[in-house]
Structure formats: C-alpha cells, structure tokens
UniProtKB/TrEMBL annotation:
It holds the Pfam family F-box. PROSITE patterns: FBOX. Residues 7-55 form the F-box domain. InterPro entries: F-box-like_dom_sf, F-box_dom, LRR_dom_sf. SUPFAM superfamilies: F-box domain. This is F-box domain-containing protein. It comes from Brassica napus.
C-alpha cells in the first residue's frame, strides 16, 4: 500500500489529546506544528507550556549585526504580544521569558510576569541574562534592572522556578511555598539563600555565578546540588 494511502492517525485524534501531545514538545517545536495544516494552526496555540526565548528568534549571525539584531528583537516582542493576546481562559502549566538587555522591555516583562501569576503556573522561568556570560563568565551586575514582584514570591502553585539576572532578588521570600521543589538562580547577588534551603521542600538546586556561596553553606533536603562559580 502506498504510504500516502495510510490513515493519518495523529490528525484523527480529538483536539484535547493533540494539546496534550504538543504540550510535551519544546515550545519552538510546538510552534512549528502550525505549518502542518489549518487545524494545527489553532491547536498549537493551546499548548500548556509556553516559553518565549529570544535565542529562538535570533541566530548568531543576526546577533553579530546590530541593525538585524534590533529588527529581530522587534519581531520577537511583537510575536510575544500577539501570542499572549490570543490566550484567554486556557490553563498554562509552564511559562518562561528569556531575553537579554531587558531595560528596553521592562513594561513587557512586568506584564508577562503578571500574566504568569494570573495563570497560576507551576513552572516559571525568568531569565534576563546575557548569553555571553555563559561562555565568558563576565557578569556585569550593573545590567541588573528587572525586579521580581511580590506576586511571584507568593505564587503558591510554583513547583519549579528559574531566575536569571534579576535585581534585589530575595530567595528567603520563597520559603513559604510548600510545593516549590526545584530552583535555579544565575548571574546575580543572592540575599539570604540559606533561609530558603533550610525552611522549604526544595530538593534540586542550581546556582550559576551568584557570588560567595559554597557547598558547605547548603543545608536542607537537597538531592541535587550544582554550583558554578567564576
């Protein structure tokens, strides 16, 4: 039998199952499913896991060209605006925003954080670090401009949280979140992290270039600990 005569089992599934399937994909791969058919152009918008990563929109060659980089960031931000505008009552489990040099987009970032809190997400990524820091470890603390609002510290549904390059971040304010078990911090100054680690159920901890923090200061119920320093 010719392969083109084979039934399309996936496309015959109800939308509710398709949403579960695409929610298991990386967000970039989920978006790519919209090219499959007219039906998929509406289904992929219902994914429960949303992650807006600037690097998915800007290739290294674009990043090396200031003009193309600026235009690419405009396209990226416009895409984020349009996506969020389409989402109404549907649930979101995972939400992430990763964008470097965030000072230009403070209003957008604040609105996205408010959106994630409103959706009562389980997994949240707020990463505003410069990608070059991962390679050269040349962290500039003067570039920290985004402050995490109290609403995030109070988000009782959180199970995992990743925060990168945020100003005045205070991990101790997360210690009352009973469901939080995975945390990742990077490229910033941590205020009193020990309170969180001793008084919470956090089991997995990752810290990248966050100043003077050593293994012998880590106390709590951790099963996985990774600390990377300059």
């Amino acid at each position: 039998m010719d392969s083109c005569d084979q039934p399309d089992i996936i496309s015959n599934l109800p939308d509710v199952l398709l949403v579960l399937i695409i929610s298991c994909l990386r967000f970039k791969e989920c978006v790519q499913t919209c090219a499959l058919s007219k039906r998929w152009r509406s289904v992929y918008l219902e994914t429960r896991n949303v992650s807006f990563k600037e690097t998915d929109f800007l290739s290294p060659s674009v990043d090396a060209n200031p003009i193309r980089n600026a235009l690419g960031r405009i396209v990226f931000v416009d895409y984020v605006h349009r996506w969020v505008a389409r989402i109404h009552d549907q649930p979101i489990d995972t939400f992430g925003i990763s964008i470097s040099y965030p000072e230009t987009y403070i209003d957008l970032i604040e609105s996205l954080i408010a959106f994630a809190v409103e959706k009562k997400v389980k997994n949240l990524v707020l990463d505003f670090s410069n990608p070059a820091w991962r390679t050269f470890h040349d962290v500039n603390l003067d570039e920290l401009v985004v402050e995490i609002p109290q609403s995030v510290y109070d988000l009782a549904t959180l199970e995992s949280l990743k925060v990168g390059e945020c100003k005045n971040f205070d991990p101790s304010k997360l210690s009352n979140l009973g469901k939080l078990n995975t945390v990742s911090f990077g490229w910033m100054v941590l205020t009193d992290p020990e309170t969180l680690l001793k008084n919470s159920r956090v089991e997995s901890l990752t810290i990248n270039d966050c100043g003077e923090l050593y293994f012998d200061t880590i106390k709590g119920n951790m099963r996985e600990v990774a600390i990377k320093k300059l």
